[in-house]
Backbone:
């Protein structure tokens, strides 16, 4: 399953860090951040519940960039 989320982040460097943090979150198969569009596309592992995975993604992203936001 793939879903796209709107994000807030201040620069392309932090967006890249968010992408890596998202990819390393359990339940996430792959993640791609588009800084120009301020979007994060997340591909979930089979059986993963986005409603449970996304709070963990945001938590991991905030470890690398305190001010970031993901709308989910
Ligand atoms: Zn930044």
Residues:
């Amino acid at each position: 399953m793939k879903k796209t989320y709107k994000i807030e982040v201040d620069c392309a460097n932090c967006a890249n860090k968010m992408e890596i943090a998202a990819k390393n979150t359990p339940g996430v198969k792959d993640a791609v951040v588009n800084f120009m569009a301020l979007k994060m596309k997340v591909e979930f592992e089979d059986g993963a519940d986005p409603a449970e995975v996304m709070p963990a993604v945001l938590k991991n992203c905030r470890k690398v960039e305190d001010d970031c936001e993901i709308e989910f």
About this structure: The longest strand covers residues 2-8.
